[in-house]
Design a protein that fits this description.
This protein has 13 helices and 12 strands. It has 402 residues and is an alpha/beta fold. It folds into 2 domains: 194 residues, Rossmann fold, CATH 3.40.50.720; 142 residues, Rossmann fold (3-Layer(aba) Sandwich), CATH 3.40.50.720. The radius of gyration is 23 Å and the shape is elongated. The protein binds ligand SAJ.
Length: 402
């Protein structure tokens, strides 16, 4: 396989599909990106982007400008098909695989002998074999014989997607050895990290295990922070001192776990293995409960005032991004406003406006507040000192105010 002779069809132009399609385009592959949303297709064909990610605008402009990337509503024939569609959760914490099924249906008429099909969407263990392969076989394709099929999870961190897309190691799982080998060869064409071949089921589980590992470790930190508060000691000091031990590395407590990955993926393991994934499901519950605990802290402080002004610092799901998806900070601020327990001021330096809240600058929020609830450890908040807050009540969910 050579870059200049290889055409790629990327299905799904979201947080993973678009960076992948544009990276491949700038590397010289002929890429067609497919999305069901006409506005996304039009935006990309105009060389612009619909999501916020550092440097993605430049990459898309360059890929589209070179003629190597076009966006389309329809699938086209290609040598390699990459499926990068969302796998959200249903209300019952079960994976919704309908987008994967639609994507497989869409590519199936265009798949021919010699093609490589790769699923990148985060998926429950077994999806590549039990859903993708079965659907392609039912459509008459000789999967594993003359159509290679593999699972290759993305592992990029929002905010660093373009760097990590190239530099992270990749795990590529084939439905058989020939498929794994074909997919490894493909990823080696544009990834600088190491590319490891394995089985599809192993690669699926690797992805889920990485995010569950982080979720369990954050849950541990969150649980410690609640115990420490009960004992009236500083959780961050406890963690900092415990982390001086050579084999201890505790993560940071926060107001809960947000984003569309760590708060979601562990459920994929739990839903197939409910009796076995006990630690993983408990960690999910601990992290999901944390915003409620923070709200109790705020309510308890608010009772000391007739009608307090409460400044909420940060809305995003984590530091230095503008992404509000599954954000515990947003959840907390929404509840405070719903409950009308005071006058709520909101400061989110990464957003210019919000449909529900009038955003204000940090200085104004701090000056007017009786209670300050620090929810996100954005760069712009890291210089805040306890001394500068005078007699205001502080609830620092991230432990950054010294
Ligand atoms: N958080 C804490 N304490 C910590 C670390 C994180 O409360 O010590 C919170 C954050 O504030 C945030 C949430 O956890 O609300 C998740 O943030 P994150 O930075 O840990 O992860 P994501 O969701 O942005 O990206 C993760 C990454 N996975 C791992 O680090 C194992 C990324 O590599 C994955 O590609 C991504 O999920 C994904 O798409 O699956």
């Amino acid at each position: 396989m050579e870059i200049k002779n290889t055409s790629v069809c990327v299905v799904g132009l979201g947080y993973i599909g678009l960076p992948t399609a544009s990276l491949l385009g700038t590397r010289g592959f002929k890429v067609v990106g497919v999305d069901v949303r006409p506005e996304v297709v039009n935006t990309i064909n105009a060389g612009k982007i619909h999501i916020v990610e550092p440097d993605l605008d430049v990459l898309v402009k360059s890929a589209v400008g070179s003629g190597n990337l076009t966006a389309s509503l329809d699938v086209v024939p290609a040598d390699v098909f990459i499926i990068a569609v969302p796998t959200p959760l249903t209300g019952q914490q079960k994976p919704d695989l309908s987008f994967i099924k639609s994507a497989v249906e869409a590519i199936s008429p265009y798949v021919i002998a010699g093609n490589l099909v790769v699923l990148e969407s985060t998926s429950p263990v077994g999806t590549t074999e039990e859903i993708v392969a079965e659907m392609l076989v039912a459509a008459g394709h000789a999967v594993g014989i003359d159509v290679h099929l593999a699972y290759c999870p993305e592992r990029v961190l929002p905010g660093r997607i373009l760097i990590e897309l190239v530099h992270n190691d990749r795990v590529v799982g084939g439905i058989n050895d020939a498929s794994a080998e074909a997919a490894v060869q493909f990823y080696r064409l544009f990834v600088n990290g190491d590319v490891y071949g394995t089985s599809a089921k192993t690669a699926e589980m690797v992805k889920l295990v990485e995010n569950s590992y982080r979720d369990v470790n954050i849950a541990y930190a969150n649980e410690l922070s609640m115990i420490a508060e009960h004992e009236k000691i500083n959780a961050w000091e406890v963690i900092e001192l415990a982390n001086r031990h050579p084999r201890v590395n505790i993560l940071n407590p926060g107001p809960g776990v947000g984003g569309h990955c760590i708060a979601v993926d562990p459920w994929f393991l739990v839903s197939r293995n409910p009796g076995l994934a006990r630690l993983i499901s408990t960690a999910r519950l601990v992290n999901d409960e944390k915003p409620r605990w923070v709200l109790d802290q705020v309510r308890e402080r608010a009772e000391r005032f007739k009608r307090p002004t409460i400044a909420c610092l940060g809305l995003a799901f984590k530091a230095d991004v503008d992404d509000l998806r599954e954000s515990p900070a947003l959840d907390i601020v929404n509840t405070l406003v719903d409950e009308n327990i005071g006058d709520i001021l909101v400061c989110e330096p990464n957003l210019s406006a919000h449909p529900r809240f009038n955003l204000c600058i940090l200085e104004e929020a701090v000056a007017k507040a009786d209670i300050i609830v620090l929810l996100v450890d954005h760069k712009g908040f890291r210089h805040i000192t306890a001394a500068s807050l005078k007699d205001r009540v502080l609830i620092d969910t991230r432990g950054i105010v010294k």
